[in-house]
Design goal:
Blueprint (H helix, E strand, L loop, with lengths): L3 E2 L4 H13 L2 H10 L5 H15 L4 H27 E2 L8 H5 L15 H12 L5 H20 L5 H22 L8
Parallel strand pairs: 1-2
């Protein structure tokens, strides 16, 4: 049992109802597939593989590998800890219309806050800061797009996704001093 019960905002409820009314089977199917791109198990596996590859590279690349693995691990643990403190019902349990359109149930009933997928994507978007502008923009656009899938499949309220994304960005920045990952973004 959690200590804090989080209620969706009126805007969250209106937005979820609009999503339920206006999405179709194809949109839901594509979103369900894409949302795997922000799954913690996949991201942890990629970070671990990347870490192994960076072991034979120059110091700055090894530091980036260390940072990616630490951030992926921390971003995997933090939402689980927070969900033990916060209770919030997923929108798919509140939006019957969504099930008429084919949206499936997501996760444990009261584990909506925060979105773990969005937390990972916020960390990824933040970590892209030191990269060249084109690559940085592409990674950030991908991160935001993957977050939107969590709203489209009614796995999370919009505010859960925004909060998760922001928490991920803060987490990534807080871990930079531990790994020595570049703190300055290019001009």
């Amino acid at each position: 049992m959690a200590f804090v019960n989080v209620k969706p905002t009126d805007a969250d409820v209106r937005f979820a109802r609009a999503v339920a009314r206006h999405t179709n089977h194809l949109t839901e199917t594509v979103s369900r597939g894409l949302t795997w791109g922000a799954d913690e198990k996949i991201l942890l596996a990629l970070a671990a593989a990347g870490w192994v590859v960076t072991r034979t590279r120059r110091e700055s690349v090894r530091r980036a590998g260390d940072h990616a693995l630490l951030v992926a691990a921390a971003a995997s643990v933090l939402p689980h800890l927070m969900k033990s403190v916060f209770d919030q019902t997923h929108p798919d349990r509140k939006t019957v219309l969504g099930h008429l359109n084919g949206v499936s149930f997501s996760g444990k009933r009261k584990d909506a806050f925060p979105s773990g997928h969005a937390l990972h994507m916020g960390a990824l978007a933040s970590a892209a800061g030191p990269l060249p502008a084109g690559l940085r923009r592409a990674i950030r656009a991908l991160a935001v797009g993957l977050c939107v899938t969590r709203i489209v499949v009614l796995a999370h309220w919009a505010s859960d996704v925004v909060a998760g994304f922001a928490l991920g960005a803060v987490l990534e920045r807080m871990l930079r001093p531990l790994t020595g990952y570049p703190a300055k973004e290019p001009r």
